[in-house]
Amino acid sequence: MRRTFSMLVVVLITLSIIGFSVQASDGGARIWTDKEEYVSHETVTIFGSGFLPNAQVTVTITAPDSSVATIYAWTDEFGVFTTYYTLDGMEGTYTVTATDGTNTATTTFLEPPSVDAVWSDSDCASIKATASGLTASKSYYVTYADPDGVVRRTSPTYTGVSSFTDYFVLDIALPKVLGT
Fold first, then answer.
1. How far is residue 154's CA from residue 134's CA, in Å, rounded to a whole number?
2. In the 8-state DSSP scheme, what is residue 110?
3. pTM
4. What does the pLDDT read at residue 85?
5. Cα(44)–Cα(38) distance, rounded to whole angstroms?
6. What whole-number distance in Å separates Cα of residue 97 and Cα of residue 61?
7. What pLDDT digit, counting tens, does each position of 143-162 carry?
8. Per-residue model confidence (pLDDT) at position 96
9. Domains of the chain, residue spans
10. Residue of 7, 22, 43, 179 with fewest CB within 10 Å of its CB?
11. 68-74 and 56-62 as β-strands: parallel, antiparallel, unpaired?
């Protein structure tokens, strides 16, 4: 009886340790970035949690052209990591996957198309914004702001196009319109 009781205690202690280990590593791995959208050549901060403690995590970033970059990060004692990836100017949706061999998580972020804005004539009376390389299934608009960030105009929404051109006629009476 005493031997059976001792073995039962050992089995229960072992099961409780195993159960604790599973909880610690099976907390639901998750990754995310510090922003949803980035501009060309910006650095993306990638965070992860719910991974194995003190483990190497393989982070793969799949670019819009299907090329893959691999980064290796280490989790802390809580299964948390932070790593960085610098964009190379390729517009589109990036997919990030992180795995420690047991847990896997995925997220996405976007590098939207760039818009070139130039003075459209020699008297600086308007700004011409041209966007190209767009995805026809999405909608786009241009927001014009002065140097203080005050929005002066938002263009119409362009849907179903791969490029567009928009103009903003400047009101020279607006404060700080030319950055002065």
1. 18
2. E
3. 0.58
4. 98
5. 8
6. 7
7. 887 777 788 888 888 888 88
8. 98
9. 27-111, 115-169
10. 179
11. antiparallel
Residue 98 to residue 57: CA distance in whole angstroms? 6
Side chain identity, residue 20: F
- DSSP count for the chain of H helices, then E strands: 1, 14
DSSP per-residue string spanning 18-60: HHHHHHHH-S--EEEES-SB--TTPEEEEEEESSPTT-EEEEE
107 touches 118 (CB < 8 A): no
Q: Is 86 helix (H, G, I), strand (E, B) or coil?
A: strand
| Full strand arrangement of the beta sheet holding 30-33 | 30-33, 43-49, 81-86
Of 113, 157, 119, 118, nearest to 132 by C-alpha is 113
Give mean pLDDT, residues 84-89. Answer: 92
Q: In this structure, what token pair is assigned to residue 41?
A: 């050549």
Cβ–Cβ < 8 Å for 157, 121: no
Alpha carbon distance 126, 137 (integer Å): 29
- Look at residues 146, 119, 145 and name the one whose alpha carbon lies nearest to residue 130: 119
Q: Say which CATH topology domain 27-111 has.
A: Immunoglobulin-like (2.60.40)
Residue where the block lists tokens 């403690």: 53
